[in-house]
Design a protein that fits this description.
A two-stranded antiparallel sheet has the order 1-2. It is built from 22 helices and 2 strands. Helix 3 packs across helix 9, helix 7 runs antiparallel to helix 9 and helix 10 packs across helix 16. It starts with a helix and ends in a 12-residue tail after the last helix. InterPro entries: Cyt_c-like_dom (IPR009056), Cyt_c-like_dom_sf (IPR036909), Cytochrome_c_Peroxidase/MauG (IPR051395), Di-haem_cyt_c_peroxidsae (IPR004852), Haem-bd (IPR025992).
Length: 461
């Protein structure tokens, strides 16, 4: 008890010192950046002031330099815990970049910020005990929510969305994306052409079956010679709306993703694009069509460009899209209740945007240790860290789209869940730290089924 009392007095004293000028000095990195790159508008300057005054960067920025008192015994452990937790949940460096450069803030960051502002969960109670003048004021809350709404309206709202839904964290699919009809026709053929594989047995469509939700329904896909992959194959539907491709985000574009499997020794196992092209060139009809679209001739870049162009057409509008466009009868009462639960349980802080996912990398097991419960880990479980080599990215994966999720079992990067109800329940447990009731799970699943869409016919000339 005596030690606890001493520690409490120390916390109070440190809080006093913080108010006296230690806690609110901007860290050097941000102070220098602020001098060199002022906020792009009066509104942006005000938003950055809210972040700075509440010391958000202490726990949510990799660039923060903690004040001297953070090295004190007891405070050090608390500060380190808060930093590691904060960085795992939400890094705000991209928000600072948006305020300084005018680039759009990422959709998932806006959704996370909206959640903590609305629920007033930041700064946390223990942090405010030390930093007495922090805390979300009413005008801070209004300013942040207004900024979030302006970002969504100007950058992310889908054309044709009903006005009352323009500020939703999720948006309806666009009617279409710009494509070249000749490339689309060629890409459709190449997507289903097994000659891209070493033994002429595996095509893109083998693992991304368009009649089956854009997946193969397997825990992991099998490639040439029966070799097994290491992660579950994600759907190809609506993939053009992902900000990066693959679970670990190693491909920055859909074209770059299309170039991965043909040369992957576990998947299609071709040794080079020359090997693939030598086979395709023997097809005089295909070659004639290819040269009509790409006069410069056969190349790996042109093949993947055509496949990506075709995949860009694979949009699947659903009843939920009709609802967001103003059709009040598109969803029934349980489905609407499920959507409200989806947002209330923070599902929409990661599954955001037009694709309800694909816009951020999130750590698997934020609220509970998923991998400890599973009992083992693999190299693939390192996720985004395999690309960035950053320990903070360990176990982080691109948030998968929830569109057509009713059809895309098994679930998660490891394909470990076969039932959608189980997947919803486990996501609440491991990501949010909640135990959902059966009725809530059923309602959320009912909502998710409204995301099952219909592929639109594409005119092929």
């Amino acid at each position: 008890m005596k030690k606890l009392l001493i520690a409490s007095i120390a916390v109070v004293l440190v809080g006093y010192l913080g108010i006296s000028g230690i806690a609110y000095v901007h860290d050097k990195d941000y102070a220098e950046r602020a001098d060199a790159s002022p906020a792009v508008s009066v509104q942006a300057s005000g938003i950055r002031d809210v972040f700075d005054r509440n010391a958000c960067y202490y726990c949510h920025s990799r660039k923060a330099v903690l004040p001297n008192y953070a090295a004190l015994p007891g405070i050090r452990q608390l500060a380190e815990h808060d930093r590691q937790t904060g960085l795992a949940y939400f890094r705000i460096d991209s928000l600072y970049a948006a305020l300084e450069s005018g680039v759009p803030a990422p959709e998932a960051d806006l959704a996370k910020l909206e959640a903590v502002v609305t629920e007033r969960t930041m700064p946390p109670t223990l942090f405010r005990l030390v930093h007495w003048t922090t805390g979300m004021r009413a005008n801070d809350q209004r300013a942040l929510l207004d900024w979030i709404a302006s970002q969504r309206h100007t950058t992310y709202a889908t054309r044709g969305v009903a006005p009352e839904f323009a500020n939703e964290p999720v948006q309806p699919l666009p009617d279409s994306l710009p494509t070249d009809a000749g490339k689309v026709a060629l890409g459709r053929q190449l997507f289903s052409d097994a000659r891209l594989s070493a033994d002429n047995t595996i095509s893109c469509a083998s693992c991304h079956t368009l009649s089956n939700g854009g997946v193969d329904g397997k825990k992991v896909s099998s490639g040439v010679g029966g070799k097994l992959g290491v992660v579950n194959a994600p759907t190809v539907f609506n993939a053009a709306l992902n900000h990066r491709q693959f679970w670990d985000g190693r491909a920055t574009t859909l074209q770059e993703q299309a170039g991965g499997p043909p040369l992957n020794p576990v998947e299609m196992a071709s040794r080079s694009w020359s090997e693939i092209i030598d086979k395709l060139k023997l097809d005089s009809s295909l070659t004639q069509q290819f040269l009509a679209v790409y006069p410069e001739g056969w190349s790996g870049a042109n093949i993947t460009d055509a496949i990506a162009e075709y995949e860009t057409t694979l949009l699947t509008p659903s009843p939920f899209d009709a609802y967001l466009r103003g059709d009040r009868h598109a969803l029934n009462g349980e489905e609407l209740h499920g959507y409200q639960l989806f947002k209330a349980n923070h599902c929409a802080t990661c599954h955001v945007g037009k694709n309800l996912g694909g816009q951020s990398f999130e750590r698997m097991g934020l609220a509970a240790d998923y991998f400890a419960a599973r009992g083992h880990t693999t190299a693939a479980d390192n996720g985004r860290a395999n690309v960035t080599k950053d320990p903070l990215d360990r176990h982080a994966f691109k948030t998968p789209t929830l569109r057509n999720v009713e059809l895309t079992a098994p679930y998660f990067h490891d394909g470990s869940r076969t039932d959608l109800h189980e997947a919803v329940r486990d996501m609440a447990t491991y990501q949010v730290g909640k135990q959902l009731s059966d009725s809530d799970v059923n309602a959320i699943v009912a909502f998710l089924k409204t995301l099952t869409g219909t592929r639109q016919p594409v005119a092929i000339h």
